[in-house]
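Here is my example:
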Amino acid sequence: MTVTLDRPATTIRRPGRLLAAAQLAGSLGDGAFLTCSVLFFTRIVGLSPAQVGLGLTLGWAVGSVAGVPLGHLADRHGARGSAVLLALATSVSILAFMVVRTPLLFVLAACLYAGCQTGLAAARQALLAALADPEHRTRVRAQLQSAGNAGLAIGAGLGGLALSADTASAYLTVFALDAVSFVVTAALLWSLPAIPKTLSARAGEPKLAVLRDRPYAVVTLLNAILLLRMPLLSVAIPLWIVERTAAPGWTVSALFVLNTVVVVVLQVRVAGRLASIGSAAWMVRRSGVLLFASCVAFALSALGTSPWVAFAVLVAGALVQVLGEMLQSAGSWEIGFALAPTDKQGQYQGFFGTGTSVARAIGPVLLSTVVLGWGLPGWLLMGGVFLAAGFAMGPAVRWARKNTKTSADAR
């Protein structure tokens, strides 16, 4: 059984606001945590950068696997209750980081943290799919994205205060803040309407049907490739600016602020242009073109010796990049929802969300090697990859839609 609200958008206003508030709360804590956690583990705990990097990679690798079974539990036992429990488990995982003093414990805590985060994301997506009818869910998802970006920006500011203090107590205060933020997230999610379980066992049907859905797997793979834009912005571009361009060092912060503000202001408007899954595939295709263009701009920023010319080129590239980001986000949300069976949104969203974990796990090393190691050819290669993935999404979506109709007719 699936709960949907086939009524005007005003009927989902309160649940939408609660979901946005929950997203804001968790993102605020995460923004502070992500800003200063690496320095805490290296400067205070004494782990090496390589140990931290390996632990985070292993953690997100585990997270990419955990999303599907945890999403399946949300289908079987109710999305709201599952989301609340996973939010509380995320809080516990953050508290576990506070007592980490060895590489092994760090890896275990990172695996717990990433698994809870990806499971929570899948459960929240299933919750959104149940509370909002198909015409409104992508717009609501865009509102959640805007709230999440605002929370990350505010949290990053709080994390900056801890960085300025550079003491164990300051870092631990940030960790405690992040843990509390997920308790608040759990409370807000519990305030949402109860969602009955949507999946009941059928004879002969696999428990994790998404693992046998090859067209959906191809769509997820293409989305994961496009999601390499995340470490592109957070890892590759900052290193490129500092090591290869004449732009001032504060350009890194300026581009981050620019990206955050544009997404907060315009993401909902961009998502409002969606009318069908066909238009979603068009958005993803256009995003590939824009991401390619942004890669060209970033590559050109290394030419010349004028700091202000380099800064202007980087800003132009960042503006093109964030437009491609918003189109890719809106289009992929609609595709991920629309191609998933109504009673299996949890496991399907868990699988679709592995793209984020994969991008976080392999993106930093891959992009640093390709972009910093190869320079202009590396940027063009990455741009070409984005372009190819964007254009391949349309045929993949059509294949997946045909497979979905065939599976439905067979039941």
